[in-house]
Q: What sequence folds into this?
């Protein structure tokens, strides 16, 4: 799905930045503008991680032009967001695993300062 982002180009001193008005508080910055698409996808995924709200309907060009807080020294760009990588709903599940595996899982989670569920999610996302 395509979402609009407001991009301000960087220079030798400052990174290029992008703000995504469809996702309040979601933004990213990159040193190389070639990395913008990847950075935007990553920012949106992190924005939704652990949250329980729906994906917004993308704003139109006319709607974003009326938004405050944009001085128009940047440009509006469309970014393709892979919404299949965004989970907005949590599902409680019960699993059965050997106690030694559960102990390893808990040790890993504790060392990362995250919950057991968070550790399972991180491990599965690496696969």
A:
């Amino acid at each position: 799905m395509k979402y609009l982002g407001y991009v301000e180009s960087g220079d030798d001193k400052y990174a290029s930045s992008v703000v995504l008005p469809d996702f309040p508080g979601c933004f990213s910055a990159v040193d190389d503008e070639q990395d913008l698409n990847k950075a935007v996808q990553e920012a949106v995924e992190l924005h939704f991680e652990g949250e329980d709200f729906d994906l917004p309907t993308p704003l139109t060009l006319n709607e974003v032009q009326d938004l405050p807080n944009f001085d128009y020294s940047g440009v509006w760009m469309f970014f393709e967001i892979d919404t299949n990588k965004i989970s907005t709903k949590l599902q409680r599940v019960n699993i059965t695993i050997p106690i030694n595996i559960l102990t390893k899982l808990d040790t890993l989670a504790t060392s990362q300062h995250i919950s057991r569920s968070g550790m399972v999610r991180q491990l599965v996302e690496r696969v």
